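ARCHIVE CARD
Drawer: 12
Card no.: 0347
Subject: one protein chain, sequence and derived structure
Cross-reference: see card 0346
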Amino acid sequence: MDDVLGYEGKHVVVTGAASGMGEQVARIVHELGANVTALDLKPVSTPVKTSLTVDLLDQASIDGVVAEIDGPVDSVFSCAGLPGPPFTDLQTAIVNFIGARHLLERLLPNMPEGSSVSCIASGAGVGWQQELETYAPLHATTSFADAVKWCEENPEQAFPMGGYRMSKVVVNQYVALSCTKYAERGVRINCLNPGPTATPMMPAFEDAAGKGTIENALGAIHRYSQPEEQAWPMVCLNSPRFSYVTGEALWVDGGFLGMLSTGTHPGFAMG
């Protein structure tokens, strides 16, 4: 595969590399010539240079795997996540945001100028701008333990609509809030907001919310996306070819946000 995106010889770290979007990202950047370090709690089957086990619920596990990763790290894809039920709100928040943030910020000192970070958020995070005040105390925490403590002590504030939506709101917020800090080191950070995607987590979403509810969030391309259709935009976001793009959320939702914003979505309207 031709390396038009500039990954040849780069050291790339991918979390959630055992399945879904993370697996497809790991496969693509490996085929583009990157040296991939794949992280997951489950075994990784796609060919990569290095595969390490990490539990994002456990700070010690995160710190241990960071110590095993040889620097420098040129690109990080934060793809690991939980769907909400059957996991608790707190578990979902830890894996999707708190643990992910801790891993990124532990890796940041090993990322040279020109490096990049891309996180998977979700279309469920729509409207995150209106909730900045709600989650300001969480973003003000500076440690894994303090972030967990805030969620434990403020469950009604943290999880008014469940741990999954909360985590995707705060990932969008984190990218916007932290892009200046990352830019001071010459590192870009962005996120992807996918629409409903046919990953191994989809049955859990359908069980929790109902298949009809999920299908109601489809856009103009009225079908679930495939993991590869989300992986390629994410690979583009982290590419050196996107060197002036940071602090952004790329919506890969089949037109859902456009329809929502213009009042043309049959199931939703945005005031």
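Annotation on reverse: Residues 163-183 form the longest helix (21 residues). The first strand starts at residue 11 and ends at 15.
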